[in-house]
Amino acid sequence: MDYLVIEGYRSAAEEFSSEAGVIPPVDFESIESRMVIREALQRGDVEEAITRILDTNPALYFRLQQQRLIELIRQSRIAEALQFAQDELAPRGEESPEFLAELERTMALLAFDSTSSPPPAITDLLSPAQRMKTAGEVNAAILESLSQGKEVKLVQLLRLLCWGENMLDERAEFPKVDMRAGLTPGRRKAEGSEETSMHE
């Protein structure tokens, strides 16, 4: 259920809740409002997303304003981008060295026009993945404000499984779980570190 809620599958979550007789952990309307914000960010409409988020999270607010600056640069609205950076982001950069470094990295995009290619250190700012990253941060912040987890519990369980296997691997031989193939034979921890099958 929490996967459906966190990832924003409202109708599937409603149906699952109804069929399984599970009490929903959140109001299903909140899923819809989160998805509106996320979709706005993913299409580059940062202003709409900002209007839906309060200025209570300075790091998130900065990320949204940074994304807005990136969109202005992407649209070649250079004068507007410079003014926006000066009015909105420069004061935040003075407050935090982390914000200042990100602002400088974003402003470096202005040195390159559409015919030249920016270096890899800053080119990722123009990729769709940057929009997705910002949208994910906003989604996580909204979930946190609603006292929901930021991450799907299944992902947390898989991480815990991998951690547990690594810890156990240092101490014993055991059958490992391969997510792609099912159970695999255990390994014997010896100086030769040979693969052995478990016939014992």
Short description:
With 200 residues, the protein is an all-alpha fold. It contains ten helices and two strands. Strands 1-2 form a two-stranded antiparallel sheet.
Tell me about this structure.
This protein has 10 helices and 2 strands. With 200 residues, it is mainly α. A two-stranded antiparallel sheet has the order 1-2. The chain is globular. 17% of the residues are buried. Residues 183-200 have low confidence and may be disordered.
Provide the low-confidence segments as ranges: 183-200
Biggest β-sheet strands, sense, barrel? 2 strands, antiparallel
SS content category: mainly alpha
Oligomeric state of the chains in view: single chain
Q: Could you give the order of the helices and strands?
A: HHHHHHHHHHEE
Percentage of helical residues? 55-70%
Cα distance spanning the termini: 40 Å
How many helix segments?
10
**What's the count of strands?**
2
Shape designation: globular
**Average of pLDDT:** 77
| Strand fraction | under 5%
Strand ordering within the main sheet:
1-2
Q: What integer value in Å does the Rg equal? A: 23 Å
Throw out a few tags for this protein:
200 residues; mainly alpha; globular; disordered C terminus
How is the topology of this model organized?
Blueprint: H1 2-7, H2 10-20, H3 28-42, H4 46-51, H5 58-74, H6 78-95, H7 97-107, H8 120-123, H9 128-145, H10 153-169, E1 176-178, E2 182-184
Helix pairs in contact: 3-9, 5-6, 5-7, 5-9, 6-7
